[in-house]
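Form 7-S
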Amino acid sequence: MQNEIIEKMTETGKSSYAAMQELSAINTNVFKSLAELQMGFATYSIESGVEFVKTLSSTTNYTDLMAAETKYATEYGTKAMELGSKTAEILNGSRDDVVSFFEKNIENATVESKPAAKKPAAKRSKKAA
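Output:
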């Protein structure tokens, strides 16, 4: 009986560990994707900011200055919208992965937690005293 309990606990521990590794992999992929997007946007922001400052320092005409500022703001806004869309795509994709992960693991947990059929107890014989 004790061996059965130990084996069951070992199985449960291994399946829990495997499930946490799978969930960790999903989270790691999401974090990596989001970090790449953020780094790309940060790089873009710095590069475009430098270009804008160069334009400001070389422009003497007010009309050209306003046109450069409008162009910069439009491009920056477009890039920010793209970042938001890509972020939403990543999060929606990860939501699907997490939902399927939990559906699968809840199903496994339900199957594993069902009690085994009990054997009928042996009947005691009544001895005359």
